[in-house]
Amino acid sequence: MTDATQGAASGGPDESPARPGVQEAEELAIPRNPPRPALALHRELHRVWANDRGLWGQLTAVNHTTLGLRFMGTALVFFAIGGLLSMLIRAQLATHDGAFLDTELYNQIFTMHGSIMMFLFAIPMLEGLGIWLLPKMLGTRDMAFPRLTALGYWCYLFGGLIMLTALLFGVAPRDGWFMYTPLSDATHSPGINADVWLLGVTFVEISAMAAAVEITVTILRQRAPGMKLTEMPLFAWYMLGTSVMMLVGFPPLIAASVLLEVERAFDWPFFDVVRGGDPLLWQHLFWLFGHPEVYIIFLPAAGVLSTLIPALCRTPILGYNAIVAAVLALVFLSFGLWVHHMFTVGIPHMALAFFSAASVLVAVPTAVQVFAWIGTMWKGQPELKLPMYHILGFFLTFVMGGLTGVMLAIVPFNWQAHDTAFVTAHLHYVLIGGFVFPMMAAATWWMPLIFGKRRIKGLGEAAFWVILIGFHGTFFIMHLTGLMGMPRRIDVYPDNPEWVWLNLTSSIFGFVLTIGFAMFALDMILQATLGKRSARDPWGAPTLDWAMPVPSTSYNFASLPGPGMWARVAADVVLPLARGEGVLPGAPRGRREVLVTSVGGARPQHVALLPGNTALPLWLAASIGVFVLLMLAGAYALAGIALIPVAVLVWVWGRGLAPAGDLSPVEAAPGLRLPIHHHARPSLSQSGLFALLVADGALLASLVFGLAFLSVVTVGPVPAPAGGGGADTVTLLAVVVAAVALGVGAAGRAARRRSVAWAGVGLALNLLALALLAVVLGGLDDPTRHARDALRAVLAAYVVVHVLVAAAMSAFALDQFRRAEITAEVAGVLPAWRHWQGFTAVASALVAVAVIAQAGA
Amino acid sequence: MRLLALFIAGPALWAVLFAAVYALHGIGCAGLTGPESLGGLWRLVMAGVWIAGLGAHVALLRALPAGRGGADRWLPLTGGWIGLGASAFTLFPVLIATSC
Ligand code: HEM
Ligand SMILES: [Cu+2]
């Protein structure tokens, strides 16, 4: 047994592998397992990892390959629908008096086009790609939280269906994809159109948060043993950046949507100028999400390019380190740019200068990547295979989009071009160039791994040319109409007949573009159905996703690639892996096992047991769907009741994590004995909780930003009414914070001593805090009176929800004690509860300070 | 984990500094009459925070562990430089831009 494996194997509860200072320096060595018949291994694994049979099996599937493909397939359907809507738009604009749509319907159509493309196509597409590809590329068998993958998918599907149904019934959102207030408030947008957007998109974003948590944890903790962070495939770096951005970037959108929905439903005036609100608050929160969103979409596409270009040029990528640095810079900088979408609203000069500078600066990391790609192509021998066509299409298109982007970042030019067709042209050059072309490259690249088939020659190339010509024909012209002054989002232009011939040409090319996409789809269908069997690793690619049979199996790897087994040409390791020579071979214990490794050096730490097929995610998503529908219907009391099944199902979900069966250590390789996750920390769940708390913190920060913004930046016509919580409120809040903080101590003691009594104390403290909070809420000023009163109430509600969850977790712990599931070795929910309680304590202290300071002001 | 933390330290400092200066600017433009208020003192305050932040960046760069070379070294180092560059470039308008 080597030193390294000893260190890993001895890691008991609460103990990371031995000698943390030294471990990363030594090369990891893991002896190989003896070879076994591949077919027997395959049968053994397939029995454990496959979906159940039939339709029911599809509903209960949690497997990442199934769900990743399903995400991408569903996203393609939405792309087709969004594309259909864009054809309606172009048909309408082809002549100056509009073909057939009235303004109301036209507004719904362009709003739904933008919203579908962004929220129901691009984001789910990249989530699906990450979910499908990452475990294969990193050398593991599934994502960290398979049930969460499924929950995300169902939330996406149901949310998307709600929005589509609204379109069919003519009540779709119509205020543009960024839903600016006051246009979208209850006065100017009566009816449920805006609610469909706010509730539907938020519902769909549950899947974004789920995917972000999973992707982060999977990349950090499930890489093949010995695959150091600094040596992992670049695609994983890009997806890590993407998922972190999603964790921080989506909460502002969720916060904004919740606020606007509450304003519409209960008349809390967050954005109402008359009562101290400010529509600019919406714009800030929206673009705080919206700009990072652009990079959230771009980074995975760039990750695909950084994977395909070196493989197609038969050379390692140039400047691995520089690219990692560029990703880091993009992740952070893109959160400092949002105001450039608001240059025309009257932002103070100095702030304009900050954000303009940041917008210029962000071009640097983008340029670094483009140069790394070009350099790689220069150095290697590029082969003009089909994916390369789309890569070249990307270069041409994206660089032009980047140029117009820099133009728009210059404030005076922005003032000219703002809200014209020029912006429409720019954003499609960036989105189609920077996302759709790379995704088409990805599709043509990974098709053999998905279906195990080779493609049919010719059609793919033809589709590419039609798409390229159609795209540039459609959108280049929009730069011109924009510069001629044509605003975006208009349905007719009776007074400007001089725009007609340009628009007509653009529309004709738009139909060419659609034909191109249809040809592309046909090519994929033909390949999947009529193609000949593909060889393994048909491209001679180096990454692990090709170190498996085609099409890929339900379990990916019969044994996991150990050190020295992943750094070669993928095809070379297919056989040893299939014969079980790698780590953790087969499924001898009849359960889904994956290896958990350390963040930096990917040292084996323990074996995690993943849950199997279950319909629970479907039921949970459906019950959330019921809540959303009741909110849409305006049945708020009923909606409140509908949260009960949601809570019950979450509890059942937690019960599913209970330890069962054989908990003894597992021999993953000769001499490498690893504990299973119930006996080891930090577990995957713990990492997941940490990721979730990052997002939760971002949500709180968004709300606090809102309060600060309304108190400082807005000089509304209405002064905030004084009062709002006298001395009693202050005392009460102080007691609440103290109770929650004492709860942290109780949770800590309960965890350390495995003490039922302390868990009980924790529950009591949380219940006390809840009772006091109820009094505080009653004492706050009427939230409909003033925007700041409303935000205070929202912050208080945020604390209530968190204490409620903390109370539920302590109750859950008591239940686990009762069932004797918590033992000296197994900590159960206790560590998670302790972290949650700690976060809640900090958050409630912060909120208390904010509320009290506000009341004093 | 430590490596990752060191990697993002520099950019994280930028984020904090950017938020702080932007907030100061907001307060200046709302409550007071902008950076020129208090006889230009406000701009001095903002510039002071900025320069102190740059100092913190430099201190961070110097405090980074030497590591054993290779990725252990370059990862934190590039992070540190990215943070310093971003803070210097995006916030230099505190010195020159007109106020509100
Ligand atoms: C399939 C080819 C596409 C065509 C022909 C097309 C066409 C258009 C047109 C003509 C508009 C302008 C509507 C107006 O301002 O009156 C528009 C808006 C928009 N498109 Fe596309 N588009 C396509 C694909 C995409 C894709 C792939 C995305 C995103 C990934 C996208 C995102 C948007 C967004 C966000 C808007 C703004 C909507 C709004 O103003 O609220 N489009 N599109
Ligand atoms: Cu932007």
Question: What does this protein look like?
Answer:
The complex is a heterodimer of chains A (857) and B (100). Among the domains of chain A are: 403-538, no CATH class; 718-856. Helix content of chain A is 66%, strand content 2%. Chain A has helices at 3-9, 20-23, 38-49, 54-59, 64-93, 103-138, 146-168, 193-221, 234-266, 279-313, 320-333, 349-361, 363-379, 386-409, 411-417, 421-451, 459-483, 500-530, 570-578, 616-632, 636-655, 684-713, 727-753, 756-779, 787-818, 830-856, and strands spanning 592-597, 604-610, 666-669, 672-674. Chain A is globular. Chain B is mainly alpha-helical and 100 residues long. Chain B has one domain (2-92). Helix content of chain B is 81%, strand content 0%. Chain B contains four helices and no strands. Chain B is elongated, with a radius of gyration of 16 Å. The model of chain B has no long low-confidence stretch (mean pLDDT 84). The chains are: A mainly alpha (857), B mainly alpha (100). The complex binds protoporphyrin IX containing FE (HEM) and copper (II) ion.
Features:
heterodimer, A: 857 residues, mainly alpha, two-stranded antiparallel ribbon, 4 strands, B: 100 residues, 81% helix, binds protoporphyrin IX containing FE, binds copper (II) ion
Oligomer state equals heterodimer
Number of strand elements of chain A? 4
Could you tell me the radius of gyration of chain B in angstroms?
Answer: 16 Å
Poorly predicted spans of chain B: none
Query: What proportion of the residues of chain B form beta strands (DSSP E)?
Result: under 5%
Q: How is the main sheet of chain A built?
A: 2 strands, antiparallel
Show unreliable segments of chain A. 1-25
Helix content of chain A: 55-70%
Estimate the global geometry of chain B from the Cα principal axes: elongated
Number of helices in the DSSP assignment of chain A:
26
Note the overall shape of chain A. globular
- Judged by helices, strands and strand pairing, the structural class of chain A is mainly alpha
User: How do the helices and strands follow one another from N- to C-terminus of chain B?
Assistant: HHHH
- Biggest sheet strand order of chain A reads 1-2
- Rg of chain A: 27 Å
Order of helices and strands of chain A: HHHHHHHHHHHHHHHHHHHEEHHEEHHHHH
Percent strand of chain A equals under 5%
- Report the bound ligands by name, code or SMILES: protoporphyrin IX containing FE, copper (II) ion
End-to-end Cα distance of chain A, whole Å, is 67 Å
